[in-house]
Design brief:
By secondary structure, the protein is α+β, with helices and mostly antiparallel strands. The chain has a single domain, classed as Jelly Rolls (Sandwich), CATH 2.60.120. Helix content is 41%, strand content 25%. The strands form two sheets. Strands 1-8-3-6 form a four-stranded antiparallel sheet. A four-stranded antiparallel sheet has the order 2-7-4-5, with no helix packed on it.
């Protein structure tokens, strides 16, 4: 028995998502034609840390966890993702191996935007392409600021503990 691919998301589903902020309905419609949708059950790894990747994902429904290996190889959960969150975009920007593993915790519906889909969007609607890249850059900047704050707090605590012991 052959199953048909899941239907693409509607423009109404994509319009409120931050990664697609500022896109017109016509641009969103084009994006739904270029991207694909995956339906995944619990426990499915969408990708693994260290793998090559050339696509980003947008969680339309479900719940995911992001795992990162420690220096000693122990996996640690670094984030939980819910509907509207996107991930994997770093592989589109820096063309480096995946920095984490992403696994489904519940049945999930995921929009997959490949580098080929983004290239096609660029060729057909450069303004929409530019807005998506700008939205991704804004989110990466926000995440970096959060990470910087975590690192600063950690260093501050370690320094304070060290000075107290002296």
């Amino acid at each position: 028995m052959t199953t048909s691919p899941p239907p693409p998301p509607s423009v109404d589903e994509l319009r409120p998502l931050g990664c697609f902020g500022g896109l017109t309905d016509a641009s969103l419609e084009l994006l739904t034609e270029l991207a694909s949708v995956q339906l995944e059950g619990p426990g499915t790894e969408l990708f693994r840390e260290g793998e090559a990747g050339r696509e980003m994902f947008v969680l339309l429904a479900g719940e995911l966890e992001v795992l990162r290996r420690s220096r000693h190889g122990t996996p640690a959960r670094v984030a939980l993702l819910g509907p509207g969150d996107w991930f994997g975009e770093m592989s589109l920007i820096d063309v480096q191996p995946r920095s984490a593993t992403v696994r489904t915790l519940a049945p999930s519906r995921v929009l997959v935007v490949s580098s080929a889909a983004l290239d096609a969007l660029y060729r057909q609607d450069v303004k929409a392409y530019t807005l998506i890249i700008l939205n991704l850059a804004r989110e990466l900047s926000r995440r970096l600021r959060v990470a910087d704050g975590i690192v600063a707090d950690f260093i501050g605590r370690v320094t304070e503990d060290y000075l107290k012991r002296r």
